[in-house]
Design brief:
The complex is a heterotrimer of chains A (about 260), B (about 260) and C (about 325). Chain A has one domain. The longest helix of chain A is centred in the middle third of the chain and has 39 residues. In chain A, about 50% of the residues are buried. Chain A is built from 9 helices and no strands. The N and C termini of chain A lie far apart (about 45 Å). Chain B has about 260 residues and is α/β, with parallel strands linked by helices. Chain B contains 9 helices and 10 strands. The N terminus of chain B is likely disordered. Chain C has about 325 residues and is of the alpha/beta class. Among the domains of chain C are: about 30 residues; about 100 residues; about 30 residues. In chain C, helix 4 packs parallel to helix 8 and helix 6 runs antiparallel to helix 8. The radius of gyration of chain C is 42 Å and the shape is elongated. The mean pLDDT of chain C is about 75. Classes of the chains: A mainly alpha (about 260), B alpha/beta (about 260), C alpha/beta (about 325). At the A-C interface, helix 2, helix 6 and helix 8 of A face helix 1 of C.
Chain lengths: ~260, ~260, ~325
């Protein structure tokens, strides 16, 4: 007569504990030499630069659509001229970081999960260890760090592109000059809008990286196991992004940055 | 080909053991995989460990290279007990020990050249770019696949991949090579090619080899001495012919 | 190797652009908050800052010249707004410029407006407290407007009843049409004035006599022996007093009537009906005025009698002589 299956609860906590240990292992390995700088930059290129087209496209559409969707209500209230202000705050504070992080989780979380998963099942990870390489450092630390530092850059670019999309959206039906649009956006933003939003993106990136690596590193044998780790990496990191977002709101509120 | 030509006389004591495994235990939960396995690999010999799937052959070989830690027992190699070693010391040992993985373990994201360069660059060995290139090409010519140097592993056939993996294993000129089921996943003809290549290269570089297999072709062609792994212990050792004549049912099952 | 360096270049450009946008963003915000370039501080005190927050804009003549740095509570009725203003404004804003809090648009952010005064004054310095102007608080405005409206409605109702009463009242019209009344009132006033003037003179004279008595001059002895004079004097003084108080009460009565009239007309309540319908009142008023006239006449007579009293005759004669001498001297 249990409402929740005890096995499910157990496995959830098992998973959580294992993930915590994995994260702890990341931090102990992260600061010790040897530093895999070349691999880190290679991963930055793959994870950051190669994700740009996707992130830019979604960001652009997001800004454009958000503006077009907001417009009727804003016109109803007679505050059509405030569209750049509202869109600017919405994109910088919340939509840009979260949507971009979710796209990132979908693309990078799954690819890390699948890549490490297949490396695991084809013994490539063992092969690395035999070849005098700490696979945790070479594979996990570099990827997690690359995610942590590339996602904020991606989000910044996505924000910029979204706002450009919004500018075009404003000009679809109305007319606002380029400089007026940006003046309106910048004038109504404060450090409290930008800095907490920027800070949380590092945590988003870290979550996507560490969950992807954890799932891949602990992938079970066979191609099915690889698929499962890729899938659960995306699901878990997406949930994690929302959890972090919620926590970030609470923390910034507690610290008085709102 | 006379495979018995190079059998070292273990009884005479002229050959030194390079790996001494004694009383190795390893369990996964309630599943006892190794239960007091003991054997020695002598210098210059090809030792085949024969066993069924899931009998703990792979666990044994991974314990030897330090990828797994046994629950109990010692593995002595180059004067050191492997289970006691830390990462740095293991790396020193691993430079001198090659390992051919069952699934080749070629890095999918790297070209053949990068795959071969990887151990060279990772083992803290100071080499110039020219030396590295020479070593890569030498290793590829040993396995007859020089033309694949800029290809990706996925573009190669299973046999070619196995050969590239062999080349990568040999590139550091190891003193001992551990083969994990070298013919698994290959057709019999390609498997035989790989085995003869192994034997040739062993002769060329005078290495000691420990081969894990359940493929009787491999056992017959490559094995100077054969150890039968049953129920987690070394059940019987001897040459192919010697074991074939044994009437013990547990040994006999492999030779039928 | 070549592709690797190309990749690193791409990566560098990618990261650079990302950071560039962040830096531009932070720079623009910082610039809006006057974090860059030189600034100086200005202060202003308000009773109510209406939700002004740090970061709100400060405008001078409608141009943004700075931002609000801090809003602090000095005491329960005084808030201090600290502003950061562009250094260039030091040569523009004067010490008597007015500071007020306004709203940017109908629902926009709060802004601080600095308005120049036309009077000459020194230029501002760092840390100056500028005078503040209490701006119109919409809430308070609406409350006042509501109260005023109610009162206007009440007054209108009162005015209506009053005018109705006035229109239907014949007595008031009689009173207002009676041309003799103002003339009578005027005359009464004159009489009262004359009486008081004489009473004044009388008092001065008495003062002088008392002075003389003090100084032991004149016929003090006889004066003290003559009891009949004392009686006369007493009676005279009493009469003066009576006349004075009569005049007093009359004046009060008049003013009471007038103010009552006024009050009744204004409020339209109570005695106004009686007053306006009572035609006898007019007669009464007339009679009162006659009484006043008679009273003052009596007083005049008493004064004349006093002059001719034996004891005081000397004094009056002396006065006459003095006057004559003076006239002679003048000649």
């Amino acid at each position: 007569m249990y409402l929740v299956n005890t096995e499910t609860v157990k496995s959830f906590f098992n998973e959580l504990g294992a993930l915590s240990l994995f994260t702890g292992r990341f931090f102990t390995q992260c600061f010790r030499p040897r530093y895999e700088l070349a691999e880190f930059f290679r991963q930055c290129f793959i994870i950051g630069y190669k994700s740009l087209p996707l992130v830019a496209l979604t960001g652009f559409i997001m800004g454009l659509v958000l503006t077009l969707q907001l417009r009727p209500s804003m016109v109803d209230y007679g505050v059509e001229s405030q569209i750049p202000v509202i869109v600017g705050i919405a994109i910088i504070r919340e939509i840009g970081p979260v949507i971009t992080a979710l796209i990132f989780a979908g693309k990078i979380g799954s690819s890390i999960g699948a890549e490490l998963g297949s490396m695991k099942v084809t013994e490539q990870i063992d092969a690395m260890e035999v070849s005098g390489t700490n696979p945790f450092k070479y594979l996990v630390v570099t990827r997690v760090l690359a995610c942590t530092f590339m996602l904020p850059v991606l989000i910044m670019l996505s924000d910029a592109i979204s706002l450009y999309g919004s500018y075009l959206g404003v000009n679809v039906k109305g007319v606002t000059s380029f400089s007026l649009f940006w003046t309106q956006v910048f004038d109504n933003l404060s450090f409290n809008d930008v800095l907490p939003a920027f800070t949380k993106t590092f945590f988003f990136g870290f979550a996507v990286g560490i969950i992807g690596c954890y799932k891949g590193f602990n992938s079970s044998k066979g191609t099915e196991g690889v698929g499962r780790s890729a899938n659960s990496a995306v699901v878990m990191s997406s949930i994690m992004i929302f959890v972090i977002d919620l926590l970030a709101v609470q923390v910034t509120d507690l610290l008085g940055f709102n | 080909m006379d495979i018995n030509k190079n059998i070292p006389d273990s009884e005479s004591g002229t050959s030194q053991p390079v790996i001494v495994i004694s009383d190795l235990h390893k369990s996964f939960g309630s599943n006892r995989v190794l239960a007091g396995f003991s054997i020695s690999l002598l210098k210059g010999e090809n030792l085949v460990v024969l066993g069924k799937s899931g009998s703990g052959k792979s666990v044994l070989i991974k314990c030897i290279i330090g990828l797994m830690k046994p629950d109990r027992g010692t593995i002595e190699m180059f004067g050191k007990n492997i289970p006691d070693l830390g990462a740095m010391e293991l790396d020193e040992i691993r430079v001198k020990v090659g390992f051919l993985f069952q699934s080749n373990a070629l890095y999918d994201s790297m070209t053949v050249r990068d795959n071969l360069e990887f151990p060279l660059r990772r083992h803290w060995i100071k080499l110039t770019q020219g030396e590295v290139d020479d070593m890569v090409m030498n290793a590829l010519s040993d396995v007859g696949l020089e033309h694949t140097v800029d290809m990706m592993p996925v573009e190669l056939s299973g046999g070619m991949r196995k050969r590239i993996a062999l080349a990568r294993t040999l590139i550091l000129k190891p003193e001992i090579i551990l083969y994990d089921e070298p013919t698994t996943g290959l057709d019999p003809i390609t498997g035989k090619e790989i085995i003869s290549l192994m034997v040739d290269l062993k002769r060329k570089y005078n290495t000691s080899s420990l081969i894990i297999s359940h493929d009787m072709n491999c056992v017959r062609m490559a094995g100077d001495r054969i150890a039968v792994l049953v129920d987690g212990i070394c059940y019987a050792t001897g040459t192919y012919e010697k074991l074939k004549q044994l009437e013990d049912s547990r040994v006999k099952q492999f030779f039928e | 190797m070549v592709s690797k360096s190309i990749n690193n270049t791409k990566l560098g450009v990618f990261v650079l652009f990302g950071l560039l946008f962040l830096i531009i963003l932070l720079y623009m915000i910082g610039k809006n908050r006057n974090m860059f370039g030189s600034n100086f501080r200005l202060k202003a005190r308000f009773e109510n800052v209406q939700g002004l927050k740090p970061g709100n804009n400060v405008r001078f003549g409608g141009i943004e010249v700075g931002t609000v740095k801090k809003v602090i509570i000095i005491n329960d009725t005084m808030m201090e707004v600290q502003m950061i203003v562009n250094e260039d404004m030091k040569s523009v804003i004067h010490k008597n410029a007015m500071v007020s809090i306004g709203t940017d648009g109908l629902v926009g952010n709060k802004v601080v407006n600095i308005t120049a005064s036309k009077e000459p004054a020194l230029l501002v310095e760092d840390g100056d407290i500028l005078p503040s102007k209490k701006q119109v608080d919409t809430d308070e405005m609406l409350r006042t407007l509501y109260k005023t409206n109610n009162e206007v409605a009440l007054i209108a109702a009162n005015l209506k009843t009053t005018t109705e009463h006035i229109n239907s009242s014949s007595a008031l019209w009689n009173l207002l049409n009676d041309k003799t009344l103002p003339a009578n009132l005027h005359q009464s006033g004159n009489n009262i004035r004359m009486a008081t003037q004489q009473a004044n003179e009388m008092m001065t004279a008495l003062g002088n006599i008392v002075e003389d008595v003090k100084n032991g001059k004149g016929s003090v002895g006889s004066l003290l022996a003559d009891t009949s004079f004392a009686v006369n004097l007493n009676a005279a003084i009493l009469k003066i007093k009576a006349v004075g108080s009569e005049a007093d009460s009359l004046a009060q009565q008049i003013s009471a009537v007038v103010s009552g009239l006024k009050n009744d007309i204004e409020t339209g309540k109570g005695t106004v009906n009686a007053l306006l319908k009572d035609s006898g009142m007019v007669n009464k008023l007339n009679r009162s005025l006659n009484n006043i006239q008679q009273g003052t006449e009596g007083f005049n007579q008493s004064m004349e009698a006093l002059k001719h009293n034996i004891l005081l005759r000397g004094y009056f004669r002396k006065q006459e002589r003095k006057e004559k001498k003076q006239q002679a001297g003048d000649k």
